[in-house]
Amino acid sequence: MSYAIVGFGAVGQALARAFARKNIEVAVASRRAPDALAPQARAIGPTVLPKALQDAIKADAIILAVPFWEHRKVAKAFASWRGKTVIDATNAFGVPVEDLDGLPSSAVIAKAFPGAQFVKGFNHLPAGVLAEDPAITGGRRVVFLSSDDESTTATVAALVERLGYAPVSLGKIAEGGQLVQARDKSWAPLIFQDLFKKDK
């Protein structure tokens, strides 16, 4: 499976470090040209490959690490996202609830990517924490996942494991997924909860 991170700010770079630690190739793209991303990508590691957005999203799995409404620009790249896994690492803090039609923020993003296998993940930790090695003595840092499709959760959980984290499923987006989604100017209960799961 091939991977891409769209958005190369603090969160995108933190995720790129996670891939680099495990020597997993990942494309990175943003509004800036690939040449502009190259110095920071090289500093993170040789498996982090700057690409134009249109090339990056050819990957099988795409992590959205962009400001919330930027997802719409990414979504316009394909009429159908069938066959793609889209991982939503955004937060909608400060976005009025009425602008989301009363839906969870991830449900709004999922509608913009028709056909995609969609999961919420990697969004509950600050970038500085996400950039750290997730392994500690006897345990691993938790990454929460939520999706309306169990097989998609399982696919992304396998990636989370490869990156060295401990995946924890919260169930469907409108149910457990609400625990990791900002609403207006309030953070959900599990946002910023830096938890570790003990290894067996």
Automatic annotation (TrEMBL):
Every Pyrroline-5-carboxylate reductase catalytic N-terminal domain range: 3-91
Keyword Transport: no
SUPFAM superfamilies: NAD(P)-binding Rossmann-fold domains
Record InterPro entries: NAD(P)-bd_dom_sf, P5C_Rdtase_cat_N, STEAP_metalloreductase
Keywords carried by this UniProt record: Oxidoreductase
Domain of life from the UniProt record: Bacteria
Pfam families (UniProt xref): F420_oxidored (PF03807)
Protein name from the UniProt record: NADPH-dependent F420 reductase
Organism: Mesorhizobium cantuariense
Taxonomic lineage of the native organism: Bacteria, Pseudomonadati, Pseudomonadota, Alphaproteobacteria, Hyphomicrobiales
